[in-house]
Design goal:
The complex is a heterodimer of chains A (580) and B (163). Chain A folds into 3 domains: 130 residues, Roll (Ubiquitin-like (UB roll)), CATH 3.10.20.740; 172 residues, Alpha-Beta Plaits, CATH 3.30.70.20; 238 residues, 3-Layer(aba) Sandwich (Rossmann fold), CATH 3.40.50. The N terminus of chain A is likely disordered. Helix content of chain A is 22%, strand content 21%. Chain A is built from 15 helices and 28 strands. In chain A, helix 2 packs across helix 3, helix 7 packs across helix 13 and helix 8 packs parallel to helix 13. In chain A, the strands form 8 sheets. A 7-stranded mixed beta sheet of chain A has the order 20-19-25-24-23-21-22. In chain A, strands 1, 2, 5, 6, 9 and 10 form a 6-stranded mixed beta sheet that branches. Chain A has a 3-stranded antiparallel beta sheet with strand order 11-12-15. Chain B folds into 2 domains: 60 residues, NADH-quinone oxidoreductase subunit E (Arc Repressor Mutant, subunit A), CATH 1.10.10.1590; 85 residues, Glutaredoxin, CATH 3.40.30.10. Chain B starts with 6 loop residues before the first helix and ends with a helix. The model of chain B has no long low-confidence stretch (mean pLDDT 93). Chain B has 7 helices and 5 strands, in the order ααααβααββββα. The chains are: A alpha+beta (580), B alpha+beta (163). At the A-B interface, strand 13 of A face helix 4 of B.
Amino acid sequence: MSAPAAPSSTAAPVPAPAAPPVETMTVMVNGKTVQVPKTLPDWQGKPAPTTMLQAAKIAGVDIPHYCYHDKLPIAGNCRMCLVEFGTPMMGPDRKPVLNEDGTPKISRSVLPYEPGTPRGAIACATPISPGMEIYADSKATQQMRESVLESLLINHPLDCTICDQAGECKLQEYSVQHGKADSQFVETKVHKPKAVDLGPRIVLDDERCILCTRCIRFTRDIAGDDALGIVNRGSYNTISAFEPGKFDNNYTLNTVDLCPVGALTSKDFRFKMRVWFLKETKSLCTSCGTGCNITIGSREGVIHRYEPRENDAVNGPWMCDSGRLNYRWVGRADRLKQVLRTSADGTLQPISWNAAIESAALILTQAPQGSVAFVVSARQTNEELFLLKKLATHTGALTDAVPREGEPDRLLVSEDRNPNSNGVRLIGMAFTEFGFNLTKIAEGIAQGRIKTLVVFGEDVTQVGIGPELLTKLDALIVSDILPNATTAAASLLLPGAAHAEKRGTFVNIKGRLQKFQKAVEAPGEARPEWEFLHELVHSLTGHNGYRTIEGLFNQMATEVPAFAGLQWAQVGDTGVTVQI
Amino acid sequence: MSFSVPASLEAELDELTTHYPVQRSASLMFLHALQEHFGYISKDAVEWTARKLGLQPINVYELVTFYPMFRQEPLGKTHIKVCRTLSCSLAGSAELRERFCTRLGLDPHAHASQTTPDGQFTVEFVECLASCGTAPVVLVNEDLHHKVGTAEADAILKQGQKA
């Protein structure tokens, strides 16, 4: 048996083989000729014949749709993407019939038994053919859209004013763009179950549902939990789980994102905030090493929701429920908000940031080489770790990070529950296995060799450096976000900022370097760690660094080999891959 | 009481499954057989079918709710099916059903099939029973009653009380 070819970091980069030429086809969309590939990736990434909808997209024409989603199997049930089209006419000799001016004659699609009536095709599931013409805004197409919308709205309640989806509802948007102003429907609407408890995190309003089956396909084909289906029939069709309230896999909230209308809503978010008031900030989920891209929805300094942000290199359009709902700690009332130092009488007293930086610089300057240790968190950003590494190198300190592990799953959740373990490794604050030095640090403190401990973002009392050891230290410099046994024992406490309150970068488990932006302000005196670390490094080493995150990142890229050549601006919204 | 399918029935169904290229295709036959045996299709029966055919319960449940012939509740001992299609409707089947319902203390305005609390009667509307010439017709269990008037209706109820 031969060993699998392992990617070697020492081998010279092999030029990638030239991609095979893409076979293309010429079609016309709204009178504009476009060359499109014959095949495009389907929802699983396998090549599939290019559809009319995809061709139109390449031509810059958006065809309205509900049930179609590029990452789900095609169902073709909502009929919203119906378009009129034409194909080149063929003569009996199988040669194209030409107009007088030499252009191919196009036969428009019509009903076979009623040749005067245009016949639409669903753009999401109809493959293109050479010379096809797609009339995405012809009169016939518009009429088809109007009719489809009219029938979708027959039983839809007009409760947009109290509906959470309002503002991001496809039914609302398309009704404005393509619908009729008035309804011709005079009968009584069908009433279906309201506020159905579908699962622990999801509420279903069956009257709003348009039965597109996106949620069913997602949970069956992506989440691998075939839990939802359509029960009853005809006008009484409803989405349902077999056991009421038991739709509870760790990906259920993606169905809320997928739902094109307000049928599925999140129990966590519903009735909390109108979506148009939310400020959207590009950020990252910090709950595990996968580093799912998210959009933080916040208003007036309060975070209201996380939503996945599409990044095919990392999470696609999905994220897990546990990560999505893990945001409340950012706004907790007991956040650390004050800079504190132990005074002569042993009590913690508030001091200014300047005094705190001076104090920390003094402690680290006076500490003999080898008497300092650093325990950092793999929840810190690369920039912060880079500055901490400078401090550690300057003081000849022993360093380590704290491992954090959990059960992985088959889709997104990683075994590594730290968002930036690879950042810690690449910057050199810990070995491949975290926790290797923690016992040495504990021993060092116990034997009195280590007199100064710097802790960033971790509770060391949980990892073998107990409160009794901490009392042996001369100085315990701690920065954290929330209080714990270590922050309680600190001699100098520097309140830090959550990821949503600062900018920075993480490297995920697969080596994707990604940046995140600031959504809300840190509470009280709390500051982004990189800001005060930068001042501390300056006070200690005299090296003047950059005062902006961009400059700091670019400086780090020149000093950390794995990030060589990178620029902040170049990292983009979806990140870049680095060698891990 | 726990749900259990007799070994003979299970063997019969296992054999039946082999007739289909895809196991899932046997779902309807399973449901018919289980309803025949138990009188209705319980949640346990849905789960049992799903387990036997390598499906998720929701896949089977969709079928059960789609077909009106599958019942999710036990029936009364006397099952009264009143035809409501055109001829019977013109001949007064609505009044007939109302009479059954009011006599039995059931809601005459409810649409769905209803069973009396004592489990003696089930009354429901059904589509054409293929005897338009003798409208209105009522199918009581397996017996078709023709030209049912008030007297015949009361006789049906009286008969049912004895059952």
